[in-house]
Every structure is written in C-alpha cells, then in structure tokens.
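quick one before i forget lol
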Amino acid sequence: MFDAKTKAELGLPTLGEMSPSCSNGSGIGWEKFDVEADAAVDQKFPFLAEPPGLTNRTTNKIQPQRRWRLYRRSIPFALAEKGDRSLAIMGQIHTVQTPLVSEIQSFWSILYLIGELNLPPRVTMAREIAEWNAWTRKRYLSQGQKFPYSLYDFLPYVDTLCEDLGINSRRKSNIYAELFEAYKPEDFEGFIDEYFSAKQN
C-alpha cells in the first residue's frame, strides 16, 4: 500500500535499508526510548530478560527488529504528534483472538479518527510504543522481531483499549469465570452501546 519512503515517514518497518532521517518516523529520537524500554521491560518481567536458549542463538542478534511506531498498535506516532488524525492502520497485531481484538481496535480507532479520544503527551506515547516493541521481541523472540506479536497475551491489550474507552473489560459473571473461562467475542456483546450510554451519563 505504501512505498518505502512513506512507510519510514509513518514509522512502519520496511524490508530494505532506511536512511537515519527516515527510519525514526519522526524527530523524537527513538534510540533513547528503545534503550529505556528494554530496561523497563526487564525490570517488570525479569524472566524475559534472559530468554530460553535457541538452536540458532545468533538469529535475533543478526536480524534487526522491525519496529512498528504505532501507538496502541494502530496510530502512526509521526502523525499523532502533529495532531493529524487522518490515518489509522488496522490489523497490525498478531493474536489468536483476531475477531475480538479487531472489533474493539476498530471502534477505538474510529473514535480516534473523529476526534472523540484524547491522546496522551508525545513522550507517554513514545514510551508506550517503545515498551511494546521491547516486550514483543523478548516475549516472542524471532516472531516478535518481525511483527507486533501478542499471540496469547491479547487480553491486556483489550483491557487497555477498554480503559481508554471508559468501559468495563471484566465481562464474566463471577470471579471464578474471570479466572478460568476463556474470553470470546460474545463476552463483549453490546460494548459499543455501553460506550455511548456512558457518554450520555
């Protein structure tokens, strides 16, 4: 859809080499945030600091990470920091629960595009993006190098979007169901109506 130059400007990874001026997607200086994010993820999740041994141990070191500079996995940081709400990029998160994640992400993104969702300061957005990139690389190793992977960890992402929307993400009828039952798309039935109802109150 986008050529390499546009991808770089939007903060999307490309397969070829990118010039330093384009590779960041903005002038914020991602190197600092990436280093801080690595340390933050190691502190929050010490078991990810030393990943399991791999057959080809040098693979992750040789292949540079394809970092996606998308706030909440859909909003190009380079546009968001300028107040440009003209673009949201869907589907750039790999998960086993695509129907659920896609529905909530799409609604969140629509509200962003029409100006109904406020964004945090640029530094907060940059940290969120950098920490996600660091976490997915450490959590999913080679696959996390290439994509915004959240294959089995999609519920915290859903929780975050619901928190932004001001709706409850705990949808089960009791604490035991919350702990032991899998979440399915039907658990979030009516969440759009809940959002608009909450706005009216």
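fyi DSSP finds eleven helices and two strands in the chain.
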